[in-house]
From TrEMBL:
GO terms for molecular function: nucleic acid binding. Pfam families: DHH, DHHA1. Residues 1-24 are annotated as: Disordered. Residues 263-328 form the DHHA1 domain. Residues 40-184 form the DDH domain. InterPro entries: DDH_dom, DHH_sf, DHHA1_dom, Oligoribo/pAp-PDE_c-di-AMP_PDE. SUPFAM superfamilies: DHH phosphoesterases. This is Bifunctional oligoribonuclease/PAP phosphatase NrnA. It comes from the Bacteria.
Amino acid sequence: MTEPTSQTAAPGRCRRTPPQSPRPEALRRVAALLDGGERFVLTCHARPDGDAVGSLLGLGLALEAAGRDATLYMEAPVPPHLAFLPGSGRVVTEPPVPLAPGTVLVVLDCGEAGRVGRGGERLAREATSVVVLDHHLTQGEFGRDVVRYVDPEVFATGAIVLWVLNELGWPVSAEIATNLYAAIVSDTGAFQHNNTTALAFAMAEYLVSRGADPSGVARALYQSWPERRLRLLGLVLHTLEVRAGGRIGLLQATPEMFRTTGAREADTEDFVNYCRSIDSVEVAVFIREVHAGNVAVSLRSKTTYDVAALAQEFGGGGHFHAAGFRRSGSAGEIRALLLERLARDFDDLRP
Ligand SMILES: [Mn+2]
C-alpha cells in the first residue's frame, strides 16, 4: 500500500476516512459475505465503461490484498482506453468452468445476469452466493436469491465499492484508489453530469489522498484516443439532425464509416454527448450500426426526460439521464421506431 505524502496527509488537508454510506445494513450484509468468502469471481456488464472496469479492478485488487482468491472475468478484453487501470492485465475473458464450491460471484455495475454477457447466467446459477453492487434503475432477475447493494441515487458503483472496503476495514492502496477514482470520474462525466454531488467530490478527495492522480486519470480517459476515433467523429457529426423544435438531436454511424476509418465501436464512447451539447437539445440519440443488421443506441437527456424508461421499452436500460439498448435491424428501421415512440412525448415531432 502506498502511503499518502506528508503534504496531502497533513491534518485538516485530507480525509482519513471516506464519507459514510446511507445504507449501513445492506453494506454489512455484503461485507459479511466478502469477509467470509475464500474464492470469488468478479464480473460486470458487457461493453464495460470506466465505472464497471474501475469497480471490478478496485474490488479485485482489494480481495487479493486480503488474501482471497479472485478471478476477474469479462466476456471481452478490457477496452484499450481503460487498459491503463491498475490490474487490467488480470482480467480473463473465459468464465471459469466449473465454479469451485464456495465461490462467491460479485456482479458490479449491473443488476441482471443477462447483461454480464457470455456465461453470466451459468455463473449466477453455479455460485454459492451472488452479490450485486450497482446503481442502475433497471434491475433484473438472477433466477435465485441475491444480496444486493443497489442505489440509483449513487453516482457510481465505484462509490459503493469504496464503502464496502471501508466497512471491511481493508486498506485502499494507490492502485485501488486510481480504479475507484476513474470509476467516479467516468460516471459523473468528469464531474459534469447532474449526479455530481458533494459526496462525489468528498469521495474523490479521499481517493486522491490515497494516491489517485487526477490529471493522469484525465489524460488516460480523455486524451489518449487513437486518431481513427476523431476521423470517425468527423463523419458522424455530418449526420446531425435536430427534431422537435431542436429538443431532440440525432447522430448516426454506419458500417461504411467504421470501415473507411478503421474505427471500432469502443472508439465511439461519449459521441452521444456532442449531440447533447447543443443548447436546445433535451434528448440526444446516437445510433451506430457497427455491422449490418446489428444496431446499438445511446440515449442521453439533459434535464427532465427519463431515457432509462425509453430504453427499457426497447429492451435496454440504464440511468435516468444515460441509457441505451441494442437491437437487430437496420439503423434506419430503429431510428424510425424511436422517432415514432418519441412523438408521443414531443407533440411537435412529425414523422
Ligand atoms: Mn456505473
